[in-house]
Every structure is written in structure tokens, then in C-alpha cells.
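Data availability (excerpt). All sequences and predicted C-alpha cell strings are deposited with the supplementary files. A representative entry, SGNH/GDSL hydrolase family protein, is shown inline so that the format can be inspected without opening the archive.
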Amino acid sequence: MGEARAARNRVERYTPIDDPPTGNGIWGSGTGEPIVLAIMGDSSAVGLGVDDVTETPGVLVAAGLSRLSGRPVRLTRVAISGAESRHLDQQVTDVLPEAPDVAVIMIGANDVTARTDPKVATTYLAAAVRRLRRAGVHVVVATCPDLGTVRPIPQPLRSIARRWSRDMAAAQIVAVVQAGGRTVALGSALGPTFAHYSELWSDDGFHPSPAGYAAAASFVLPSVADALGYWPIGRGEIRERAVRRRERKLSTTAARSSQQTGSEVTSDVTTSLDGTRRRLSTVSRLLPVALPIPHRGIDSAARPDLVADLSISELMAEAEASDDDPVQTKSQLRDGESR
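C-alpha cell line:
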């Protein structure tokens, strides 16, 4: 109990009081009507800890989606720091009048720290997904991060937090897919790479830094684009990435995918030759893309100073896919930042 209190005090001491600007409005450029992107959830969706609106997850995903689709994107963020799954119903109520085309929900960490039973938390989450789907909104849920990698949390509490957060993520996958949404596993996005690089953490050691948020956004973006029919992509500076698909029973998929960064889970109900209806899950490994520099509308100036932060997501993917020595990989990260 004393260890948990000390960790919470450290986080609260360094965590900013105010959320960054929402970033609501038009991002990117292109032709046609703007795609309406809703950002829902907790501080991980808000981007708590960053100072520049162009470093927030919503703006990063909006800019990337505009780049992939060739259309402007109108961002509407209703996420609030400290939100738990039980708060999603109000967020859905707030966002539906904006008629979103796709909603990204990032939720779960506060449910874990509040010790909310995963069955209870995911009941709220599934209800929110169903409301959005009934309104014709595509839904992408970034599952609970792995809190076992958060530095201020000491052992043995850290191991307990890892188990709790993985249980939450697995339950989220089942609930969301059954409700008609799709999930992206960010459980290990706060994993080995975050453990190696302090640059990916903000001062409180609990929330990501701008580079950390960029890494998470680069994993979420492919699923958002895929939901709207803008993935895979093939030519130009952003190149097509390999997608590995395989079908499994949903219950089997959830536990495995909750621990694999960037694993996307969707499902379909199929009917076999004997008339039996089964829900099969499809697991896709949508690898991250380099994020474009966010800009407001067509006339806004780009931000060259953001290039280094936004490129870290690709370096993370390379580090996770290789068996390189951590020291060597860390050097590669520094080299990437200096360009």
C-alpha cells in the first residue's frame, strides 16, 4: 500500500494539471468533404503532458489520415483526462451530434488503477461501441497499455499491474469485437522499447512524451485508415506494409493479441456447411507508418522541428522487430533524432 501511494504521489507531482488544447478543427488538405474523426477516452487520448497541440494523438492521427485519404480531416476530441470506461456513455452523447465517420477510443488505464473489474469496465465500453456502430460510426479501440512498464511503480506492484492491465486488454478485445468494433493492442507499446528509452516518457514517468504519443498514433493510424477503406497503401513516400491475417476463435485471439503491439482484431460471424454459426476473429499485424507533419488546413506552415519526434515510431518498430543489442538500438535512436 505504501509503495502504491508513493508511486501515485510521484505521478501527481509531475503530471500537468491542464489538458493540452483539443486541436478540434480541420487538419490536412485534399479534395472532398472532410472526414470527421472523433477522439474519445482518457489522458492517453488527450495527450496529457505535451505542450504543442500538434503533438497530441488526435492531431497526429488526423494528419496521417488526411495524408492517406487525400481528404481533409475534421477532428473533434471529447476525451478527458482521468476518464474511466463508465464515462464513455457521456462522451458518445457529446460526439454523436458531430456525425463522426470514425471514432478512436483510448481507455483502460484508469479502470485498472481504480481496480474496476474488467467485466464491469468492458460492459461500459461495449455499450459505447454499440451506440457508435448503430449511428454508422466505425470504431477503433486502442486497448489498455501495459502498466507493468511504468517506472514509478515499484516491484512487486509492477508485476501485479502488468497482470491486471493485460487482463483488462484481453477483456476489451472480446467486448469490442463482439460489439462490432475493432481493436489495436497497445499493451506492449509501453513495453520493451519504452523501457529502454527514457525519451518516450514525460516527466511524470506515467504518461508518454511527444515521441511516445507519436509512436502510439503510428500504430493506431493504419486501423483507422483500414476502417474507412484507405489501407493498404502502395506508392509514394508512405509505403505499403506487410499485413499478416489469420483466423482464430475470438477467445483464443484476445489473450494473445493483448500482448502484441499493433495487433488489430476484427471479427465476422460465419456459417459452416452444417448451419452452425461461429464468430471468427481476424488478426492483422498493421505495422506503423511514419507520420506526416500536422498542419492546419491548406495554408498553415509546417513544423520542421517535429520531424525528429514523429520519426521515432519507425525506429521503435525496427527495434521491436530486430534482435539488436539495446545499446546499439539506442544509438540508432539518437542518430534518428539528430537528423
